[in-house]
Amino acid sequence: MRKALLFILLPIAATAQPKLVIKPGVSVDFGNISRTDSLKKQITIANEGTETLLISNVRPGCGCTATLLSDNRIPQGGSATLNVAFDPTHYKGKVTKSVTITSNDPVHPTINFTFSANVIVNVDVTPEYLVFANAKKRASSTQTLTVTNHSGVPLRITSAEVDKALKGLTVSMSRSSIPPDGSATVKATFVGETSGTITGVVMLHTSDKTQPAIEIRVYGFVQE
């Protein structure tokens, strides 16, 4: 009788295993967010298996954070909460981030949870930097940027502040008032008096409350 009972129990024990399930899914689109708003969401990690699930590691990708808010031991039928945060300050457009979760799930020991969001900016500057590559000493070099108004109301560029380290750089606007969905050109002209590396910042001051100051980084090199 003992042998028969052992024969029956062994297959049951062998099939007992945890199963990690992410809710609402392994890939989630959080839609539109403002560049000034941090994204914070809670994700559920459920154990739909027949054995205790052990979360051994939670590794967020670059640009986001992920914290397990509850116990890393999840019993059969239980769940844990994963807090995911993303700072969109330096992003625009469609952005995708990922969090890697490692557990004792024998079928999927590593699962990647990916989330995406569309970062909306009221004032879009393209490109977001100025590069004066291989500028000649005492020769004029010009670069341009486009400022587009997505705010839905008229936008004013109140001033363009040039870093004191950027000697020889002048900035002008094609127009200081930009209508909704309109754009203006920023013209930057540089005349290098000394050779060497160029680094600094141009700050555009605007009437937009969410982006009152827009930083434009400047790079380059002046040859003899």
The CATH superfamily of the largest domain bears the name: Immunoglobulins
What is the domain tally?
2
Question: Roughly how many Å apart are the termini?
Answer: 96 Å
| Helix-residue proportion | under 10%
Give me the number of helical elements: 1
CATH topology of the largest domain: Immunoglobulin-like
The level 1 CATH classification of the largest domain is Mainly Beta
How would a crystallographer describe the biggest sheet?
5 strands, mixed
Low-pLDDT windows of residues: 1-10
Give a count of the beta strands, DSSP E runs of length 2 or more. Answer: 18
Over all CA atoms, what is the radius of gyration?
A: 27 Å
Q: Would you identify the CATH architecture of the largest domain?
A: Sandwich
User: What portion of residues belong to β-strands?
Assistant: over 45%
Structural class: mainly beta
Shape: elongated
Question: How are the strands of the largest sheet arranged?
Answer: 2-9-8-4-6
The ordered string of helix (H) and strand (E) elements is HEEEEEEEEEEEEEEEEEE
Quote the average pLDDT.
Answer: 91
